Amino acid sequence: MNKVNITDIKSLLSSKKKIIIVPHKNPDGDAIGSTLGLYHYLCQLNHDVKVISPNEYPHFLKWMPGENSILKYDTQTEVCSTLTQDTDIIFTLDFNALHRAGNMESILSKSEAIKIMIDHHQAPDPYPNFTYSDVSMSSTCEMVYNFIDMLGDNELINPDVATCLYAGIMTDTGSFRFPCTTSKTHRIIADLIDKGAKNSEIHNNIYDTNSYQKLQLLGCALSNLKVLPEYKTAYITLSQDELNKFDYKKGDTEGIVNYGLSLNNIVLAAIFIEDKQEGIIKISLRSKGDFSVNDMSRSYFNGGGHINAAGGRSESTLEETVEKFISILPSYNNALNNE
Ligand code: 5GP
Ligand code: MN
Questions:
Q1: Side-chain half-sphere CA neighbours of 51 within 13 A
Q2: Which residues line ligand 1 (CB under 6 A)?
Q3: Contact at 8 Å (CB) between 152 and 126?
Q4: Residue of 297, 301, 307 to test ligand 1 pocket, by largest number of atoms within 8 Å of CB
Q5: In this model, does residue 76 exceed pLDDT 90?
Q6: Could you give the CA distance from residue 119 to residue 95 in angstroms, rounded to a whole number?
Q7: What ligand is nearest to the CA atom of residue 26?
Q8: Residue whose CA is at the smallest distance from ligand 1 atom 11
Q9: Which residues contact 159 (CB under 8 A, 6 or more apart)?
Q10: φ, ψ of residue 275 in degrees (nearest 5)
Q11: For residue 16, how far is its CA from the centre of ligand 2 (angstroms)?
């Protein structure tokens, strides 16, 4: 975002506005952390601010300050529609195309409000009036920190803002270990701790609140893990029956795909999760080095994301989806084996 845009946004925010903040569908830690971080900042400027999530999010995010004020479009459609139709500004956070907002896509595209995107995914769509897009950023939370800083309001980062932004940076960087973590990320994290983020407590709230069933489901996933050493690839499947057996709750499968990538000499990891209700297989892809799962997902699985982390979907069966995945690996042979 250049200086002109920031000046325009600064003047836009200089008088009281009605503002809606929207994360992507099935929001993760970065999506909820960034929307709530921005929410706590804008509230201090005395705007009338609402966070509307397209749908529900996992229980391990349900401790963040302000979380209980988040409206959910799929279960509170009427009130959310009214608010969205009657707003001055819409911030869309942690996504690059309106279809990523799920069932909010149509109301967002029809809205005449000023739209501001803050996002770190590749290939942002040109729908917003103001776009702050940077694929080199670890997380949208890191960008919200920069956004507040660019507006000259660093001192408005209070403990609530700091806590939410810390949580999203932590989850999107895999607790500061993915390559997107820079020295700048660490400097921001240090500042957030200075401003009141309780780092150990935040980690605890997100990672140490597992249910017994969730760990049993992880055990099931790990026993389904298959390795294709000739393609430096590992993949996991979870059928709907297996999810049901371990009383699956939203978020229970988050992060499981990374176990495949933790194997020695593996460059590409995938997880295929059956969702009978939606009639799809949800796919998560992860990679090391220059191997782009964003390209793979865009080309074959109706999805996208980042170079090393992407998602997608398939409308075939679980078995057919895995077969398709295995069948495309030879075309990536060189890329996989040169990593
Ligand atoms: P996950 O595998 O954790 O669902 O997603 C990994 C990354 O890819 C996230 O940054 C997420 O926002 C992005 N992503 C997940 N699913 C999709 C999708 O269907 N389309 C696009 N464009 N990105 C996705
Ligand atoms: Mn993100």
A1: 27
A2: 284, 303-306, 309-313
A3: no
A4: 297
A5: yes
A6: 6
A7: 1
A8: 305
A9: 65, 195, 196, 197
A10: -125, 95
A11: 29
CA atoms of 307 and 304, how far apart (whole Å)? 9
Give the domain ranges of the chain.
3-207, 214-337
Whether the predicted model's global pTM rises above the 0.85 cut: yes
Of all ligands present, the nearest one to the C-alpha of 98 is 1
The pLDDT tens digits for 300-314 are: 999 999 999 999 999
Distances (CA, A) of 272 to 253, 256, 312: 10, 11, 10
CA-to-CA dists, residue 186 to 60, 116, 138, 177, angstroms: 23, 26, 11, 11
Confidence of residue 1 (pLDDT cuts 50, 70, 90): confident
Smallest CA-to-CA distance from 76 within 48, 56, 102, 47 is with 56
Question: Does residue 186 sit in helix, strand or coil?
Answer: helix
What is the CATH architecture assignment of 3-207? Alpha-Beta Complex (3.90)
Which atom number of ligand 1 is nearest to the Cα of residue 285? 2
- The span from the CA of 121 to the CA of 75, in Å, is 28
Q: Under CATH, which architecture does the 214-337 domain have? A: Roll (3.10)
CA–centroid distance, residue 17 to ligand 1 (Å)? 31
Please tell me the distance between residue 103's alpha carbon and the centre of ligand 2 in angstroms: 20
Neighbours of ion ligand 2 (CB under 5 A): 30, 94, 140, 172
Could you tell me the two tokens for 158?
């209070």
Reduce the DSSP state of residue 118 to 3 states and report it: strand
Helix (H) or strand (E) run with residue 310 in it: strand 309-314
Cβ distance 176 to 189 under 8 Å?
yes
CB 291 within 8 A of CB 232: no
pLDDT digits (tens, 9 = 90+) for 127-137: 999 999 999 99
The residue type of 17 is: K
